[in-house]
Design brief:
The chain is of the alpha+beta class. Helices cover 30% and strands 21% of the residues. Helix 3 packs across helix 4. Pfam families: ABC_ATPase, ABC_N, MRB1590_C.
């Protein structure tokens, strides 16, 4: 159909009941783009209608070098999404009932993540938008709809999706910055590092509820200690210097309010790429790093927490530990084992969000409470072994226990937001002031027993799976609470997790494959067919999805209260 056909339809249904909008679903050819109306909302207050605007590449005119590898493709798609968002902001608003006149594209925040909102390839550029079809009461506002389709959408294409009207320097800045970030992350393990913080990085954020960089004269740019400063040669930016955090056990110490947790938070977000100007563009962390914390009240399903907790009263089995209401220590133990099970080379911990009795038992407490009376093997007595036997490093914010000096390979002191390498000083203190605490536990390696998901508890027929916000998924009559899964950064990632759970339940849960094996199959599909593949709207507008990491999908499964394994 043509744009004229669309206009005729809108004239015909003007003033009719809202459901007559359903007649618009289909494909329409405009001068510079093809409009796909994939889904029409049922009433003005329902979830927005879904449309796709596809511009042939010979019109959009983006040269292949701007998207000729995965890094550049994600970067260009992200840039264009933000470009379209900026055009939408400038459009006049329409009056009407409910969501009338709303136009939305899922642009994301400070991170650059693969999204379903934009597709760029050799054939076309496609933007996926959500719109509120206008109405007065429950009656169609045909003239308002004509403004959206015949006036606003061509403006969005012209100003937001055609290279000739965009800032080419900004495009290349986006593309090359993301390519450099991915390259740097790929080099960390080759250099024996788990993280890198660039000189000049701006770590503090605007506020506790804003992820934007703090600005003003009091902001202290990051500056590496000389002893930890290293150089990288990036493909586009050239030479960059900063602090390399080595593999092994690293402590971040210092007084309160001197930047310990700020540094750790930047590192935990360093698994993602960031937009130019964020300040954390070159705070880069190994891609599989997992933030660990205590999580009172979470459910645990048959997790072997015996490396940390055993000999519980009443002979409770901790090799297949299950509870509906975990304590701080059992939840933290389970979080570590689950992270190892799905795959990680770096654990991130902050004593402020850890269970004290899980982290340390000092010499005095050991004297008062004999080991045979204490089921917990504290993390301090496993942390070096995790690196030696499992190749898993740890970065730990510690302000209250110098006992960790004995097990640390590197100690970074934060003072007035500046880092200092105090490793040697900490080692000397450890020698001078002996704690006399006994190492608890044994030297047996931590061996992970793969768990196999069962179909029971994952059936989704007739159930709604919907993201409520960044940290909650509605799964039928249950809610998956992800408040403490701290490396989720976007509601659209949570949307995608819900779709992935639906996808694996219908396709890959065979009661033979482990959690890790199943998720690897899903990610293989995503890399080969695109993020859209997990959506129930595959082939159309798939909804607002952003790619979560495999680690966060596993975390959601583990927090689903009906999830069962063998």
């Amino acid at each position: 159909m043509t744009k004229e056909d669309l206009k005729k339809k809108l004239d015909k249904i003007d003033g009719k009941g809202y459901k007559a909008y359903k007649d618009l679903e289909g494909e329409y050819e405009f001068e510079k783009f093809i409009l796909h109306i994939d889904h029409v909302q049922g009433d003005p207050f329902a979830s927005l209608s879904r449309i796709r605007i596809r511009v042939p590449q010979n019109i959009a005119d983006f040269e292949f070098s701007m998207y000729n590898n995965p890094s550049r493709q994600v970067a260009l798609e992200d840039f264009l999404t933000r470009s379209v968002f900026d055009v939408i902001k400038m459009l006049p608003s329409l009056k009407g009932t409910g969501h009338s006149g709303d136009i939305y594209i899922d642009k994301g925040g400070q991170q650059i993540i693969k999204r379903s909102a934009m597709v760029v390839n050799e054939d076309y550029v496609e933007a996926r938008l959500s719109i509120g079809l206008p109405a007065f009461g429950r009656r169609i506002n045909g003239s308002g709809a004509q403004r959206i389709f015949l006036e606003f959408l061509p403006q969005i294409v012209e100003k937001g999706l055609l290279k000739k009207h965009l800032n080419i320097q900004d495009i290349w800045l986006w593309v090359e910055t993301v390519e450099d970030q991915d390259y740097l992350r790929s080099q960390l393990k080759k250099r024996g590092l788990v993280a890198f913080v660039a000189d000049g990085a701006i770590l503090p954020r605007e506020s506790g509820i804003s992820d934007r960089p703090l600005k003003g004269g009091n902001v202290v740019p990051f500056e590496s200690p000389d002893s930890l400063r290293i150089k990288f040669q990036l493909p586009n930016r050239g030479e960059i210097t900063g602090m390399g955090i080595p593999e092994g056990v690293t402590l971040i110490v210092g007084g309160g309010y001197h930047g310990k947790s700020t540094l750790l938070q930047a590192i935990q977000k360093g698994v993602y790429n960031h937009i130019p100007g964020d300040g954390r563009e070159f705070v880069i962390t190994v891609a599989d790093a997992v933030k660990i914390r205590a999580e009172d009240g979470r459910r645990i399903e048959k997790v072997d927490i015996s490396p940390f907790i055993n000999n519980l009263p009443n002979n409770v089995d901790t090799t297949r530990f299950t509870t509906e209401n975990a304590s701080g220590s059992t939840s933290q133990a389970a979080n570590i084992i689950e992270a190892i099970e799905i795959g990680t080379s770096l654990l991130l911990l902050d004593e402020d969000t850890s269970a004290t009795n899980f982290m340390i038992r000092d010499a005095r407490m050991q004297k008062l409470i004999a080991k045979k009376e204490e089921p917990i093997t504290p993390f301090i007595d496993r942390v070096k072994q995790l690196y030696k036997d499992n190749g898993i490093s740890t970065i730990l914010v510690m302000g209250g226990s110098g006992d960790y000096f004995d097990v640390a390979n590197c100690v970074i002191k934060m003072h007035n937001y500046r880092p200092y390498d105090v490793t040697q000083e900490a080692k000397e203190i450890a020698k001078e002031f002996k704690t006399n605490r006994e190492v608890e536990g044994n030297n047996e390696p931590i061996v992970i027993k793969p768990r196999i998901p069962l179909k029971k508890g994952l059936e989704v027929k007739g159930k709604k799976i919907k993201s409520k916000d960044e940290d909650t998924i509605r799964f039928g009559y249950q809610e998956i609470e992800l408040d403490y899964v701290e490396q989720l950064v976007d509601k659209s990632q949570t949307n995608a997790i819900g779709e992935i759970i639906r996808y694996i339940a219908s396709k890959y849960v065979d009661e033979k494959s482990s959690i890790k094996e199943i998720l690897k199959k899903v990610y293989k599909d995503i890399y080969e067919k695109g993020l859209d593949v997990v959506s129930s709207f595959y082939g159309k507008h798939p909804g607002n999805l952003a790619l979560p990491r495999l680690q966060e999908v596993a975390a959601a499964l583990n927090r689903l209260r009906s999830f069962t394994v063998k």
